[in-house]
Amino acid sequence: MFIAVNSKQEGQIVLNTDKICSIEYQSGKITVLFDNQIEIEICIESSKEYLDLVRHLAIANNR
């Protein structure tokens, strides 16, 4: 499954959720590590945004 994420530097990017190895949250940033060693950081502004994103990524990754 693929999801689109808006990036301030790159515009919209598309992520392949089948390749996610781990999702970590620390100090308002989510770090997503993919199986090809690519790591992205996602800054969030609220705990609701965090929960929504993690729930979406986890559901997508378990399909």
UniProtKB/TrEMBL annotation:
It comes from the Bacteria. This is Uncharacterized protein. It comes from Bibersteinia trehalosi (Pasteurella trehalosi).
